[in-house]
Design a protein that fits this description.
mainly alpha; 66% helix; 10 helices; 205 residues
């Protein structure tokens, strides 16, 4: 008599991953199009066509294109901080090394083909009106970034933390802009070295 326990059970098919929800596909398509072409240049029709959804699907998730633009920037903000904070794991308790790791990475990204700068900076330029949903997200991000840089300057022992923090922010914004203009071999390749020089000039020895 055969031992039932020895019989191999038929393999059960693995459940397939659920397809992305319509709202997720819309956000992903908007992220690609808005970053590459600009928010104002892209219409709702192009977004839903790229996402493979209908207009009603878009408006069930986002009340307007402005709301979708704000959601895109919120996603961009989260991705920015994830990248910015990556250096903390590699260099705990060393704000200088954390900053320089981010600056080094940005200098490399900003000299690659297709680089379009910072999506949040670009949105602030596209939407000068203070109350626009996209501009509000961009402004909140830039204020938080400025505060973070000043706090890190204090941790580094800067004689004037506000000035050093502002100087580092200006370097970042310069890299965002110049990367789009010069590309490979542009001034963004010197970003980390310039930041190091600025920090050395401002930190107590």
């Amino acid at each position: 008599m055969k031992n039932r326990a020895s019989r191999s059970s038929p393999a059960r098919p693995k459940p397939s991953a659920a397809p992305p929800r319509a709202a997720d596909r819309i956000r992903e398509s908007a992220r690609e199009l808005f970053y590459r072409e600009g928010i104002r240049a892209i219409g709702v029709d192009e977004i839903v066509s790229r996402a493979g959804v209908t207009k009603p699907s878009l408006y069930r998730s986002f009340a307007s294109k402005d709301e979708l633009a704000a959601a895109y920037l919120e996603d961009y903000d989260a991705a920015f901080w994830e990248r910015f904070d990556a250096g903390a794991a590699e260099h705990p308790d060393d704000p200088r090394a954390q900053l320089l790791a981010y600056f080094e990475g940005l200098g490399q990204r900003a000299t690659k083909a297709g680089y379009r700068g910072c999506g949040l900076t670009n949105a602030a330029v596209e939407y000068p009106e203070p109350g626009h949903p996209a501009r509000k997200v961009a402004e909140a991000h830039k204020r938080a970034l400025r505060d973070r840089l000043v706090a890190m300057a204090k941790q580094m022992g800067a004689r004037d933390a506000q000035t050093l923090g502002d100087g580092l922010l200006l370097l970042l914004e310069g890299a965002f802009a110049s990367g789009q203009l010069f590309g490979k071999g542009g001034p963004a390749r010197s970003l980390a070295v310039a930041a190091q020089c600025l920090i050395d000039a401002c930190v107590r020895r």
